[in-house]
Amino acid sequence: MSELITVILAAGKGTRMKSKLPKVLHKAGGKPMLQHVIDAAKGAGAKRSIAVVGFEAEMVREAISVDTEIVVQAEQLGTGHAVLQTAEALKDEKGTVMVLCGDTPLLTADMLKAFYEAHDKSGAKATVLTAIMPDATGYGRIIRSADGMLQKIVEHKDATEEERSIREVNSGIYCFDKEDLFSALAEVGCDNAQGEYYLPDVLDILRSRGEKIAAYATEDYESTLGVNSRLQLAEAEKVLRTRKNRELMEQGVTLMDPATTYVDADVVVGNDTVIYPGTWLEGNTVIGSGCEIGPNCRFTDVKVGDEAVVSFTYAHECEMEAGVTVGPYVHIRPNTVLKKKVHVGNFVEVKNSNIGEGTKLPHLSYIGDCDMGSGVNMGCGTITVNYDGKIKHRTVIGDNAFIGCNTNLVAPVTVGDGAFVGAGSTITKEVPADALAVARAHQKNIVGWADKRK
Ligand code: UD1
Ligand code: CA
Which of 386, 425, 432, 433 is nearest to 408 (CA)? Predict the structure, then answer.
């Protein structure tokens, strides 16, 4: 089999989305639609993928994986015109070019692979992937001759009433012999309802030249769904969520309520982890085995070790090692590492900090810009005073330190290993290892004061 090259059309604005963002960058399952298509192409074995971009080209380039080649279509004159822009990039290539659209985020690598193999075996110069749609509105319709052979594709806007009743549609996915594709494209005109150069016209041109063209019908219409509107985006989103949840359950993850569990496409979860309702796992989040996550957690780019128990927590760009217990009502912010068995209790915020093994932050604390050792106990309401209005300063706390309740640690400041700090202290100077620091006003009792007041 020849080596697979894919061309992904992504230059359109997506007018029907009514958005400043190019359509193909709208996310489904937490990932830009175009990236889903790129990933499916790669999974199907594509050695090169070329994205044709136009509207907000720079923004698209920056949002997708770096190994995707980019060709710019300055003016969007139609899908045929878009493919034509890749002529230079493909000039030394031979064999099969698969054309895909950037607005079909449900494609799977398996489907593309099967389609490519079928095209390769058939000996056709062009094959179109078709599907029977429950609602074919908007799609190009597949016109077959009396003997069932593919004749041509008619766009919805150009179709007659009778043609519009056909539910077999063009998925927008094709395999072409490269030479035939470009020689036919040179003949494609724009005499149609939209005044555009239609890629599907290539099939008609090749057929009239006596070349073999084919239609490959997939049973799985859902995977070919194109997104042109916000409504269709929501439908695609739902399919991706359902697929991901099913995949996780098949891998041994318990989802207490799949309907309220939202897991992005690239998230990894270990087996025997239980996910409670109302949980969002986003971006490149990776969760270990045997964890209990949720209810009501939102993790974005978070790494969690095995057997962690985390509830009612928002965490982003941070790491929690094995055996941590976190929550409820916790915010873990970027650049934070909670080492093994750290405990973070209710109403605690941790930011840009390293928290050592087995350390406890049980209640009502703000810990920012802090390097904390292992075995530390932070009393209720202790805070790091990290910001002087201009600069953020770090707090350093040694192993096994014991910080009393309601302490302010005014950074930059260091508390040594094994030191104690009395409750209610405001610490502004270094506390040496194993010392006790008390920094608060002495208590004065005035005996009988209340009686005199009466
Ligand atoms: C297209 C097909 C239609 C098919 C449908 C499947 C044509 C003429 N029609 O219609 O037969 O059923 O896809 O979803 O091909 N694009 C460019 N440059 C352009 C125009 C479009 O890159 O000049 C890109 C768009 O960004 C989009 C893709 O091509 O990703 C498809 O374009 P779109 O306008 O959505 O075509 P449809 O009307 O859906
Ligand atoms: Ca489309």
Answer: 425
* Cβ-proximal residues to 103 (8 Å cutoff; 6+ apart), any chain: 10, 12, 14, 23, 24, 33, 34, 226, 227, 228
Residue linked to tokens 């099939």: 203
Give residue-wise pLDDT tens across range 73-100.
Answer: 999 999 999 999 999 999 999 999 999 9
> Cβ-count burial of 333 within 10 angstroms (0-12 exposed, 13-18 middle, 19+ buried)?
middle
Q: What count of Cα atoms within 13 Å lies in the side-chain half-sphere of residue 242? A: 9
**Rounded CA gap, 33 and 104, in Å?**
7
pTM of the prediction? 0.91
What's the pLDDT at 1?
66
CA distance 324 to 308: 5
Q: Does domain 4-224 have CATH number 3.90.550.10?
A: yes
Q: Which ligand is nearest to the CA of 78?
A: 1
d(CA 173, CA 126): 11
What residue segments make up the domains of the chain, in order of their start?
Answer: 4-224, 230-437
Whole-angstrom distance, CA of residue 133 vs CA of residue 166? 9
Closest CA to 99 of 184, 13, 160: 184
Question: Residue 148's pLDDT band (boundaries 50, 70, 90)?
Answer: confident
* 279 in Cβ contact with 295 (< 8 Å): yes
Task: State yes or no: is 442 an active-site residue.
Answer: no
Q: How far is the CA of 387 from the centre of ligand 2 (A)?
A: 51
Q: What angle in degrees, to the nearest 10, is found between the helix axes of 109-122 and 33-43?
A: 50
CA distances from 68 to 35, 107, 168, 435, 436 (A): 10, 17, 31, 59, 60
Cβ of 139 closer than 6 Å to ligand 1, yes or no, is: yes
Written as six digits, the tokens of 189 are 């005109």
Q: Pick from 79, 155, 202, 229 the residue to mutate for probing ligand 1's pocket: most ligand atoms within 8 Å of its CB.
A: 79
Q: What architecture (CATH level 2) is domain 230-437?
A: 3 Solenoid (2.160)
- Residue 235 has which token pair? 């439908």
- Beta-bridged to residue 152, according to DSSP, are 143
Phi, psi of 401 (to 5 degrees): -70, 155
Round to whole Å and give the CA distance between 321 and 391: 30
Average pLDDT over residues 345-356: 98
- Average pLDDT of the chain is 97
In the chain, % helix, strand, coil (3-state, to 5) comes to 20, 30, 45
- 3-class SS at 58? helix
